[in-house]
Amino acid sequence: MNKKPANRILAGLPDAALARLMPLLKPVELAAGQRLSEPEATSGFIYFPESSVISCFADMSDGKSPEVGMIGFEGVADVAFLLDSRQSHSLSVSIAGSALRGSKKDVAREIFQGNGAQQAILEYAAQYVGQLSQRAACAVVHKLEQRFAIWLLLVTDRVKSDVIHITHERIAEYLGARRAGITVIALDMQATGTITNSRGRLRVMDRSRLEAMACECYSALTLPQPRTVNQ
Questions:
Q1: pLDDT tier at 7 (50, 70, 90 boundaries)?
Q2: Model pTM?
Q3: How far is CA 134 from CA 18, 43, 68, 187, 210, in A?
C-alpha cells in the first residue's frame, strides 16, 4: 500500500493487516454537530477519524449532554464494538473533517482474525478508558477555566492546528457549563493574548500560556507516541 491512512491506528498496522481492512472502510466527510450514534445502539458504523474530531457524550434526562471522551486521528469511535455490547453514550462530531467508516459487523469480524489489528485496537481501548477516568476526575476537582484550557489543548492536538471553528454555546455544552461562563473565560483569554475568538473562529495564539492555565490532567491526557510494528 503506497499511502498510509492519516488515522494512527490504521497507519500503525502491519501491511498485510491494513490491506485486508481497508477494503471494508469508506472515506467520508463528517459535519460538525452530526450525530453518529445513539445510546443502546448495537448496529451501525465504526469510524476511524483522520482530520475530524468525534465526541462521546453522556446524555442526561434533563437534556444536558456533557462530553466525556474525545476521539481524533489517534483512535476509533467507538471501542464498545469490541465487546459486541450496547454503548452507553452517544457519539457526535465536534470538529468537521474526514474519517474512514465501516460496518461494525464487518470490521469486527476482520479485527478478530488476530492479524495485528486486534492488539492495536485493544491498546487504544486501554488508553481511551484512561482518558475517560482522568476527565471524570478533572470535572469533579478542577475549575472551569482549567477544564476549558485543557479542552482547547486536546482539540488542537487532534486537528494539528491552532484554529478551530466552534461557538461558545457548543463548548459550554461539552463542558457542562453555562454559555455565559465560557464567554467570560474566553474574554479573559483574549485579554491576555492567549486566544483570539470571533464569529465561531477560535485561534490559540499563545500555547504555552494556555498550557499554564490548564491543570495537571493535561499531562496525563497528552496523546501517546505512535506504536511501532513489524511489517
A1: very high
A2: 0.91
A3: 31, 28, 10, 27, 19
**Sign of the four-CA dihedral 74, 78, 82, 83:** positive
Tens-place pLDDT, residues 199-211: 899 999 999 999 9
Which residue do the cell numbers 497507519 mark? 11
CATH 2.60.120.10 residue window(s) in the chain: 8-138
Q: Checking phi first, is residue 25 left (phi over 0); if not, alpha (psi -120 to 50) or beta? A: beta
214 DSSP assignment: S
Phi and psi for 3 in degrees, rounded to 5? -115, 125
Dist. CA 120–CA 152, nearest whole Å: 27
Question: CA-to-CA distance for 74 and 146, rounded, in angstroms?
Answer: 23
**Domain 143-214: CATH architecture, name and number where available:** Orthogonal Bundle (1.10)
Torsion angle, alpha carbons of 167, 169, 172, 174, to 10? -70
Dihedral in degrees, nearest 10, Cα atoms 71, 87, 135, 227: -40
Give me 137's grid cell. Answer: 476526575
Superfamily of domain 8-138: Jelly Rolls (2.60.120.10)
